[in-house]
Amino acid sequence: MKAIRSFRLVNVFVVLGVILVMNGCAHQPVSRGELRQRVLEEMRIYIEKIPDPKRVEQLLVSVDALQQDLSELNRTVRKFRSDMRTLNVNYDATREDFCKIFDEYNMARKGKQRELLTSYRNMKELTTPSEWKSLAKLDEKALSESLRRPLVDI
């Protein structure tokens, strides 16, 4: 039961992370990259205040992995969009061509999502419940901010 709850919590954070990548911030247009950088920087600032240097080092490695995973996921989405646009204007494109692009995208996306889950799980294992709750609040704050702002780089 506890493992299911933990898995659900990690899934929530993955969804939040993906939403943050896909959304912008309030009033002033901001790119996904800028928003992602700001959230990850806030996480780093919070993590550096943790008194245990070993955990701080490991958590910062996990945040770096998270940043890399989010960047790769963003590249995967951009490649899919580009491939779809290219194929869409090709009059001779077949159904199999479209299916191939969808299959490649789905495989790449699922792989990146697994890597994101791993990064979040590592972070959760390295934090106390109160530390994890504080990190979750950073994600929640960034999510609510992103939903109020226009998106720039689609």
What would the CATH topology be? Four Helix Bundle (Hemerythrin (Met), subunit A)
The largest sheet is:
none
How many separate structural domains? 1
End-to-end CA span: 39 Å
Low-confidence stretches: none
Structural class: mainly alpha
CATH architect. name: Up-down Bundle
Helix tally? 5
The shape is elongated
Strand content: under 5%
CATH class: Mainly Alpha
Radius of gyration: 18 Å
Order of helices and strands: HHHHH
Mean pLDDT reading: 80
Question: Roughly what percent helix?
Answer: over 70%
Q: How many strands appear in the DSSP assignment? A: 0
What does this 3D model show about the protein?
This protein is mainly α. The chain has a single domain (2-148), classed as Four Helix Bundle (Hemerythrin (Met), subunit A) (Up-down Bundle). The protein is built from five helices and no strands. It has helices at residues 2-22, 32-48, 53-88, 95-126, 129-148. The longest helix has 36 residues, at 53-88. It is elongated. It starts with a helix and ends in a 6-residue tail after the last helix. 19% of the residues are buried.
Detail the topology: elements first, then pairings.
Layout: H1 2-22, H2 32-48, H3 53-88, H4 95-126, H5 129-148
Brief description of this entry?
This protein has 5 helices and no strands. The termini are far apart.
